[in-house]
Design a protein that fits this description.
- The protein has about 120 residues and is mainly β.
- About 0% of the residues lie in helices and about 70% in strands.
- The protein contains no helices and 10 strands.
- Strand 6 and strand 7 form a beta hairpin.
- The chain is globular and about 40 Å long.
Length: about 120
Amino acid sequence: MKFLSEILTDGDVLSHSLKTTVATTSTTTIATIDGTKYRTIELLIQLTQGTSHHSTKVFVLHDGTDTWLTEYAVLTSDGALTSITATLSGSNVLIQTTQGSATSAAYKIYIVATPV
């Protein structure tokens, strides 16, 4: 993952942006957030795959054992290109994508995370 900006903090709130490329239909982690520091995570995810585009807003909440995710404000130019999920791995919250096609997709992700 290539970072577009440095981590910025406003008090304890994390604001971060990154970009990455995915070229598989296997579930792939596109962002990792420290679950010991952040409980609620909001993501704006934009991906481009060829001439197709997909943008979505995602909220994730965890309690250290389970994660809950809601996805809303989904906009696509040619139908859904991916499915976004969240899971815990140790103390990290993993944001994952499962694409419908193995064609390379460029992701730009903006993250705002609220502390525990």
